[in-house]
Amino acid sequence: MKNNTSLIFEKSVKGRKAFSLPGPVAKGKKPADYIPAGFLRSSLEFPEISELDIVRHYTNLASKNFSVDGNFYPLGSCTMKYNPKINERICAYEGFKDVHPLFPCKKVQGYMSLLKEMEKLLCMITGMDEFCLHPSAGAHGELLGLMLIRAFHDKQGNRRKKIIVPDSSHGTNPSSAAMAGYRIASIKSDRDGQIDLNELRNALDDEVAALMMTNPNTLGLFEDKILEIAGMVHEKGALLYYDGANLNPLLGLCRPGDMGFDVVHLNLHKTFSTPHGGGGPGSGPVGVKKKLEPFLPVPVIRREGDILTFDFNCPDSIGMIKAFWGNTGVILKAFAYITALGDEGLKKTGETSVLNANYLRKKLEEHYNIPFNKACMHEFVISVKDLASKGVHAIDIAKALIDRGIHPPTVYFPLIVEESIMVEPTETESKSTLDSFIDEMVQIRKEAEQDPGSLKNAPVNMSVKRLDEFKAARFPDVRYKAGKNNI
Questions:
Q1: Hey, where are the domains in the chain?
Q2: What is the CATH architecture of 345-474?
Q3: H helices within 282-404, ranges in order?
Q4: Contact (Cβ atoms closer than 8 angstroms) between residue 108 and residue 99
Q5: For residue 302, what are the CA distances in angstroms to 85, 113, 141, 146?
Q6: Which candidate, 288, 273, 251, 283, places its Cα nearest to that of 378?
Q7: Which of 274, 217, 209 has its CA nearest to residue 422?
Q8: Which residues lie closer than 8 Å to 32 by C-beta, 6 or more apart?
Q9: Residue 11 confidence (pLDDT) above 70
Q10: E strand or H helix at 421, and its extent?
Q11: Which is higher by pLDDT, 19 or 24?
Q12: What is the dihedral of CA 115, 116, 121, 125, to 10 degrees?
C-alpha cells in the first residue's frame, strides 16, 4: 500500500509529460535506472576501520581547528568573543528546537511572546521605538534599513538618490546602499580620524537620503561630534543610519537613539552571544524611530485579545524581506544573554571591552605605530608601514601570530590606514591572555627588526602553510583527492 506522501506526489505530477517520476513510485523502475552508466559503481567496498582509528582521526582533526574555545581572537570589528555554552543548551530545549515556522500561532504563544519581549529589550538598549527581528545578518539588516529610508522619502514624495558614507566605513555600507538603488558619496575623515564636518557639509544636499555611520568608527574612535552631525543631516531632511557592528563598547553606556540616529541595525551574532563566523547563522535586527514604523516588514507581532498573532495588514510596509520570522535560534540565544546579564552586566560588558582595548593600546604604543593614538573604545588600529623597508608587511605579522596560537586581527582595514592591523580584544579575555598577546607582539616586532626573513614563511607550525593568497582567492582547489589515508 502506498503511503500518503507517494499518493500526493503522484497527484501533483499527473499529466506532466516531461517529468519522469523517480524511485519506487514509478512501477518497474529502480533508482539506478535514472543514473547515467558512467556514474554507477561496478562494486561497493567499504573501508574496514576500527572505531578507535576513527575516533583518533576526528579527534586529531578537531585539535587542528582554530576556535575561540582554545585560542585568542583579537579580530577587530568582528567581536569574536567567547559565548556562554549555556545559551547553546537553552536553544536546544525541545520547546524551542522542535518549533516549526508553520505551527499555528496558538501553539507557539511562548515563542512569540519571547520575540515580542526581545523587540522591547532591543528598543531599550538602543533608544529606538520599534524593532524588526527578521533580517538574517548585519548586511541584510543594512539593506532593510535603506529600504525603509527609501520608503519614508517616497511616501513624502521626496525622491532622493544619494547615500553618504565615511571613508572609514565598513564595506557593506556602500554595497548595501548600491543594492537599494542609491548613488554613493564618500567623505574623508579629518586628522583626528573622525568625520570631517566641512566634508559633510559640502556633501549634504537635497538629493541625500541618509548618512550611514558606525559609532565608534572602524578606528575604534567615538565620534564626539555626533549630535552636531545629526543636526546637520536632519536639517537637510535626510536620515541618520547606525551600523551596529561596533555596538559592543556602548552597551549600558549610551544609545544610538539618543545620539540622533533614525535607523539602527544590530549584529546579534556579534554583540549578544552566538558563535560568530563560519558563514552563519546570523541575525541583523533593525530598529527605527516612530516615523519609520509604518514601513517595517510584515508580518508584525500584535496582540489580539488574549493571544499574539502575525499581522500582515500593514498598507505602507515594504513587504517581506525573509521567509518566516527570522533566525529565531540566534534571537533566542541573544535573549538569554541579555536577560542573564541585565542592565549592570551589559554595562560591565561595555566598560570591560573599552578597558581591555586601551590596556593593549598603551602597552603596544612603545613598539608599534598607532596613527590615532588616543583613548579608544573597543578596538584600535596599528600601522606597520614603517616595517615595509625591511620587507615586512601586515600580512606577515598576522601569519606569525598563527604560529603562536593567536588568531590574526583584521589586516589592511580600514583602508585609510596603510599596512593596518585592527586589534579588538573584547571583554571576555583575561589580563593574563592580554599580557601573553603583548609579549608575542613585542617578540614579533623584534624578529621583524633583526631577522625579517623569518616572518616571510610563517606559519611554519601549522598543518597548512602559507598559501598563495591570490590563487587561493581566485582559483580555489576544492576537488576531492582520493588517497589511501582517506576515510
A1: 85-340, 345-474
A2: Alpha-Beta Complex (3.90)
A3: 328-364, 394-403
A4: yes
A5: 32, 10, 22, 24
A6: 251
A7: 217
A8: 40
A9: no
A10: strand 420-423
A11: 24
A12: 90
Residue 149 C-alpha cell reads as 529610508
The residue to which cell 575604534 is assigned: 220
Backbone angles phi, psi at 205, to 5 degrees: -145, -175
- Produce one character per residue of 265-283: b if its CB has 16 or more CB atoms within 10 Å, e if not: bbbbbbbbbbbbeeeeebb
User: Which of these, 334, 282, 286, 267, lies nearest to 131 by C-alpha position?
Assistant: 286
DSSP string, 122-174: HHHHHT-SEEE---SSHHHHHHHHHHHHHHHHHHTT----EEEEETTS-THHH
Rg, C-alpha atoms of the chain: 26
For residues 385 and 377, what is the distance between their CA atoms, to the nearest angstrom? Answer: 23
Residue length, the chain?
A: 487
Q: Give the helix, strand, coil percentages of the chain, each rounded to 5.
A: 45, 10, 45
pLDDT digits (tens, 9 = 90+) for 109-125: 999 999 999 999 999 99
pLDDT at 438: 98
Question: Measured between alpha carbons, how far is 360 from 91 in angstroms, rounded to an integer?
Answer: 35
Grid cell of 54 as nine digits: 576513527
Q: Which amino acid makes up residue 401?
A: L
CATH architecture for the domain at 85-340: 3-Layer(aba) Sandwich (3.40)
Between CA 217 and CA 197 the distance in angstroms is 15
> Is the CB of residue 177 less than 8 Å from the CB of residue 184?
yes
Instruction: Note whether 272 and 338 are within 8 A (CB).
Output: yes
Percent of the chain with pLDDT over 70: 92
Amino acid, res. 246? N
β-pair partners for 406: 72
Q: How many CB atoms lie within 10 A of CB 376?
A: 24
For residues 471 and 162, the model is more confident at 162
The Cα-based distances of 40 to 20, 316, 397 in angstroms read 19, 55, 50
Q: Which of 310, 346, 257, 262 is nearest to 107 (CA)?
A: 310
- State residue 278's pLDDT score: 67
Instruction: Summarize pLDDT for 148-176 with one digit per residue, the tens.
Output: 999 999 999 988 999 999 999 998 999 99
Strands (E), 368-438: 380-383, 410-411, 420-423
Degrees to nearest 5, angle at CA 111 with 110 and 112: 90
Beta-carbon count within 10 A of 116 CB: 16
Alpha-carbon distance of 109 to 107, in angstroms, equals 6
pTM comes to 0.86
Mean pLDDT across the stretch 27-38? 77
